[in-house]
Amino acid sequence: MTGMELLKQQFNGHVAFRERRPGVVQVLAPLFHEDGDMVDIFLDETGDGSNRVRISDHGMTLMRLTYHYDLDTENKVRIFNRILAENRIAEQDGRLFLEAEPERLYPAILQFAQTVAKVSSMQFFRREAIQSLFYEQLAEFIEERLAAFSPRARVLPIPDHDEYEVDYQLDAGPRPVYLFGVRDNDKARLATISCLEFQRRRLPFKSVMVHQDFEGGLTKKDRTRITSAADKQFPSLDDFRENGALFLERERGA
């Protein structure tokens, strides 16, 4: 039994195949986008001498997505790449694809269609869903790009007082750097209170605030309070990515 014969059996006959050109077959299966259009699925010969089959969308998913939604920010691209990685789907030149053995085509096609649906639904993501990645992205940058400063997460400068927890401690100079990621007013207030308590106790440290959106994300009062308490602020994660390491190097050399 060939892979396509097995596939037809597994779909209970509710599938058809249309040869588009030599080595490329389109799968017409009851797998649909939210608007009712059928998911574009093609089976391509890999051409590498193996018997594996490449399941591909031939670039149709991203083309459909860009009618209403552009991958025009770093956050959006990160979300897109995360969806692909979590579902073990690859991308090349705008084409999504997954390779599978002929006998594994059925589960692989279902996996592929599910991923296409997730990518196609990115246009419906709420702003909050994208913003929720802020702390994850900050942690990823610190752990990957600032390893030279021996970052330690969730530090308690005052033992047994977890209400004054620091997101990251970094070694840059004679005084440790206490870094806070600040996404909203609540975190700004907590970071401000913590810094003031550290100052009151005369702890040796330098405070750094990395904001998601300093101007648009905080009230005027919270901006004023945190500016008074902090030693250094980065108004956005992009600014910190660009200038954070240089700042820490200067601190180390001071």
Description:
By secondary structure, the protein is of the alpha+beta class. It has 2 domains: 123 residues, Yope Regulator, Chain: A, CATH 3.30.1460; 121 residues, Trna Endonuclease, Chain: A, domain 1. It is 42% helix and 22% strand. The protein is built from 10 helices and 11 strands. The strands form 2 sheets. The protein has a 6-stranded antiparallel beta sheet. Strands 7-8-9-10-11 form a 5-stranded mixed beta sheet, sandwiched between helices. Helix 7 packs parallel to helix 9. The longest helix is centred in the last third of the chain and has 17 residues. The radius of gyration is 25 Å and the shape is elongated. The termini are far apart.
